[in-house]
What we know:
It is a single chain. The chain has helices spanning 4-19, 22-44, 50-57, 61-89, 91-111, 115-143, 146-178, 191-197, 200-209, 217-222, 226-237, 239-253, 274-288, 291-304, 309-337, 339-363, 377-394, 396-406, 413-441, 443-465, and strands spanning 365-366, 372-373. It is an all-alpha fold. The protein has a two-stranded antiparallel sheet. A hairpin with a 5-residue loop joins β1 and β2 (372-373). The longest helix is centred in the middle third of the chain and has 33 residues, at 146-178.
Amino acid sequence: MGSVPLDLEQEQQEQQEQQENTLFVILVSCVATIGGFLFGFDSGVINGTVDGLRTAFESDSMGTGFNVASMLLGCAVGAFFAGRLADKYGRRALLISAAVLFIVSAWGSGVAGSSIEFIVYRILGGLAVGAASVMTPAYIAEVAPARYRGALATVQQVAIISGLFAAFVSNYFLAQTAGSSTDTFWLGYEAWRWMFWIELIPASIFFVALFFIPESPRFLVTRGRKEQATAVLQKLYGKAVGSQKYTEIKQSLESDSQPKLSDLIDKHSGKVRKIVWIGVGLASFQQLVGINVVFYYGAVLWQAVGFSESDALLINIISGAVSVAACVITISLIDKVGRKPFLMLGSIGMAVTLALMVFAFASASVDASGNLDLGDLGTLALIAANGYVFFFNMSWGPVMWVMLGEMFPNQIRGSGLAVAGLVQWGSNFAITMTFPIMLASVGLVGAYGFYCIFAVISIGFVAKYVYETKGRELEQMQG
């Protein structure tokens, strides 16, 4: 008799899975992840245009640096306001707005005639990147079934890396064809301008494709649009399960008011909810372990320890391949193993590999030119660096976005994402701007020692505060 309920539950689950429109769920999720691709492309395209910007705008090193970093300011603002605006106007509506901003930024960055004009267009692109970074995983979390929600949300990280890779390949092809990024290419415009205009192709595809996917059913329920919400849920999960899901979402929202930022404060204690602090911790630790130093300054790093420019660029390509391989592993296992084990393994792996890099840099000698000479430790440093990239992209890279998209209760999802997104991009900006300063003051040993310390701290953070969300419906998330 004891086995009957279990058999019945299994039979019900199988019937539910048969009714689900899995192909449709995957399709709408893939459309949403084009935002991740543009996130990566917009972040990576700037690397090939620095010489062109310097020449065109006659900017000094500080001005050029701000031209490069200005997008991150837009990212922080975009991430903060996207969650709140999405609660008011809808997830899909915000993604459509982001697509428009991607198009405007790509076109404007290419036609800019001054540094100020260029910065304005890059900040607009940053608004789009920030909005896409938080809305894409949130949208996927709200349309995908719990049993493979993590895998679909992890595709976001693959899309980001693919966007970066596409930008690097595009920049390389345009520069090689024209002769250099500052030489004239098609229609009398320099190659670096075309590097930005290439982004118009995926941005336009994103804009058009968004009109063919539904609005988030959970947003529709919060706005009282029962017929639309039920229709979307039935198309996603089948007629019977869709109607049941509508009832579950409705019941989870009955005791709640319209979403607002003040919902992040616990009404009984008057303090910020614990779940918000966990989201802030996830967002900040993802950047404090220093991953964007490897991304933004990869070539600078390897040239600083004795590798040639050609070797340094090749190492970056290898790191990209390692990143994709790591994400594939996560996609395959995240809904079986869970989120927390990946974060824990990633933190431990990053702490060990960063420590090995610090050891290699600390043990290196200095040549006549004042550069570090790793000698026999070069292989160790190279393996450790790629190990670090692997552990990050298998864990904190994708899993942080997966958790932020699903861990908040329906009532505070938009507001929670707003705060966490602001912290994530603010930390990104801080780490990116401080690395050159740390490199000049405390050297690679001090900089990577700093990132290693935060990797170690993140182990304790995951162990004590992060809870598992694998297999849980969004209506079961507690605040």
